[in-house]
Design a protein that fits this description.
With 112 residues, this protein is α+β, with helices and mostly antiparallel strands. The chain is 20% helix and 22% strand.
């Protein structure tokens, strides 16, 4: 998508503080973190939200969770715990219309 900020990050048009990248996904530190650990994990293929992923491509969701597990292990925050958040649509607070998962941790989290 031409105007998608995450697609521009994937394409290297906008810099990011990468923590993981492979042929399917990119993970980078959030520029406005709400916790000491705040990482975004995005598929390289553009989907607006989980609603837009076709059934035959749904394995990307499992793959993203696999990578989240790897990041938590590699960055040593799995033991203390963390939260995974995926907002779908405007009422959920999705600001960027490219599916993304927030990994949030590094402190005790509470519900707002």
């Amino acid at each position: 998508m031409d105007n998608c900020i995450f697609c521009k990050i994937i394409n290297g048009e906008i810099p990011s503080d990468k923590v993981y990248e492979d042929e399917k996904v990119l993970a980078f530190k959030d520029i406005n973190p709400i916790a000491p650990v705040h990482i975004l994990v995005i598929p390289k293929k553009h989907y607006e939200s989980i609603i837009d992923i076709q059934d035959n491509e749904m394995e990307i969701v499992a793959y993203i969770h696999k990578i989240i597990n790897k990041i938590a292990h590699d960055m040593n925050f799995k033991e203390d715990g963390f939260r995974i958040v995926n907002n779908c649509g405007k009422n959920a607070g999705q600001e960027v219309k490219h599916i993304h998962y927030h990994i949030i941790g590094g402190k005790i989290l509470k519900w707002a």
